[in-house]
Amino acid sequence: MDPWEKKKWLVVLALVFVCVGGSIWQERKALPEGPETQAVVQQEKATKEKPPRITIYISGAVQEPGLYQVPPGIRFQEALAEAGGVTEEADLTRVNLARKCKDGCQINVPFLKKKAQKAGTAPSNREAVPSAGAGNGPGQGAARRINLNQAGVEELTELPGIGPALARRIVEYRKTQPFRKAEDLQQVSGIGPAKFQKLREWVEV
Q1: E strands within the chain?
Q2: Which DSSP string corresponds to 79-91?
Q3: Distance CA 65, CA 108 (A)
Q4: SS3 category, 146
Q5: What residues contact residue 178 under an 8 Å CB cut-off, 6+ apart?
Q6: What is the pLDDT of residues 26-63, one digit of tens each?
Q7: In 85-141, which ranges are continuous DSSP H helix?
């Protein structure tokens, strides 16, 4: 066989190998992915579809202080809704509600400052805490005390400074340990000595 004929056959064989190799590669590519590959693909897809979240800390005069996962860039006003909103003692004039949240930031809602007031004059920036028999407490009539072990969430919200979230915490607390005296109310998260002093004339056990 002359050299030219030999080269021609070598080129033909090379083309055959290329065609066969390409067919095999296409077939392997078309085969269904294994369970492990599918799991990785699904995990990557879920990661891409899941919206990003950041962690912030909300404290102060809010219904449910603590750590929260929120979308990045939301305003402080939207973030406070995650904590159940603010309490009646919140001073929102000292919070920039238009500020945007960043990861690791803290939103602290200050409490209203106590101001000296004349006898019988209520502060202009919040409701006055009524005294027994004043006609402004639960029932809007003669002084009526609310039983901490029997009142429902709706009835508890009639108490000064008690919102729905705090009323639910009171109900949850008494499920594990009934109130033996009015002072036990201070064991509920969110009710300190100052708040209890405003409530003690309106509650009983």
Answers
A1: 54-60, 66-70, 106-109, 146-147, 203-204
A2: HHHHTT-B-TTB-
A3: 9
A4: strand
A5: 149, 205
A6: 666 555 555 666 666 666 665 566 678 999 999 999 99
A7: none
